[in-house]
Fold:
Amino acid sequence: DALANSYNIPPIQLIRDVGVPAVMSTARQMGVESLRQPPSYYGLALTLGGGEVPLLEMTRAYATLANGGRRPEMSSVIRIVDSAGRTVADASRARRPAVNAVDPRIAYIITDILSDNQARTPAMGANSPLRLPFPAAVKTGTTDDYRDNWAIGYTPGLVVGVWVGNTDGRPMRNSAGLEGAAPIWNALMQRIYATPAMKATLLVDGLVPPAEFPRPGGLEERDVCLPRGAGGSQCTASRPDLFLAGGPTHWIARLGYRPDVTSQPGAWTMVVGTLSGEQREAAWRSLPALADGRRPPAPTFCALNVAPGADGARLLLPLPPFYDDEVRARLWAEGRGYALAPVTVCPSGAGTWAGGGLPAEGDAAPPPAPAGVSAAIGAPAPGDVLSGAVPVVGSAVFPADGVQYYKLEIGVGSAPSSWTTFGTTHGTPVANGVLEELNAGALPAGDYVIRLVIVGPDGNYAAVARVPVVIRESRYTLRVRRGAPLGCRGRGARFDARQDRGTILRQRATVLRRQPHETQSIADPAHAGRTRGDPGGHHPTRAGRRLSSGNGGAPAGRARLF
Structure:
């Protein structure tokens, strides 16, 4: 629904989960080559049009989807014929093969969504310009000031991209992609397929492209439980959807339990227990508040760690991976009849949920580690004050064939809601040794938690260890006196006490006061895109041909580009 209807919030959630570098890498594989700045330049806004991309590159990316995940090679000249009618050059004779860029199953699922008129009807209408009398996938995009918009769509044999805007960059009058570029795209697609001479240009090696999008193997269709259908022992409202056969499953390490996420897509299957009044109060007090002071509702239910298939299992709505999103979801769902999964593991003495009511939850420790797997942090110790380069010492013990790797993460605050990896992943166990090095000087002063995680073969955390620490600020603001030697940055310049140590020693400078320096918090998504010296946290954006897909329109061979 999010992709088909151009809903903005879900792609922001997704890019925060998978990371901007991963999105940029996929875009490059699909033919988008104009995103040359580092990921921090774009931030999460990349999925909503925060990077300028030419129409030709975006059309090529959609051609990759039309070709079942194979990126086509482009040629600006198809054929050259002289005055006597002789062919001087023919690109089709030296056509380079398409490059495998995306899993064909994923390309087909995206195509299936973009070609589903019923799925996009809530936002686009049932008879919008995106609907054609033959199978076609299409996506629109609009800049937030109506400066320009586009529509890119395809069949198995044709890709058409349309851009609409003023050549001088002036905003248009309330012209979105659905009203501006989409009607032009619709007319072009229908005219090409209705004109025999133009349709003949779509032949590849004399063959007519298929009318329907060919479905690859490795996909399975399953019923997905809709939010209104969860809460009981059986799903009461569902719809079919496509999945990768044998695809990976994920859970949220901070929850402290592993729900059954495969039996019923769209819901977690689990057994839930009740909390006493005293247990509810203790669990609620353990839940951190958001930056704006809001807290989740007091928990009533908790999770029982029991084997899959146990009696009394219920279908509950999955939780967002980030704690702040979870709190907002709970506050919205409270009183609306939606049953969200709990986040608190049941303490001893908790009763079994007999049904009724909405589960609410707190935070809990991770589940016990499998045999032969252990994680421990020996240094720094809890409460240590850190600055500069700090070695993290401890143990990550695991069998060679039972774990993928271990890594170190850091989160902001005493109860982090999100984590950022520092260093790299390690596939070799460590016993009482240096696990990784943290550059504490690169982070703002404050409370943090360092976390060691060992990742199992299924992608879930096999073991977790945490240690709370405090990072001390080590930057200073200096003012340079008059008559400073050449090479000084100027009066009132701001220096970094570590990077500019040699410069400071050579200059006649006076320390005025100790002052935190504005810098990027790599563990706080709210500071995404903020760079040193830019306390506002915003980069200047360029207007013109920066295109917003509305839902990310991520870029996302036989298809012909027009």
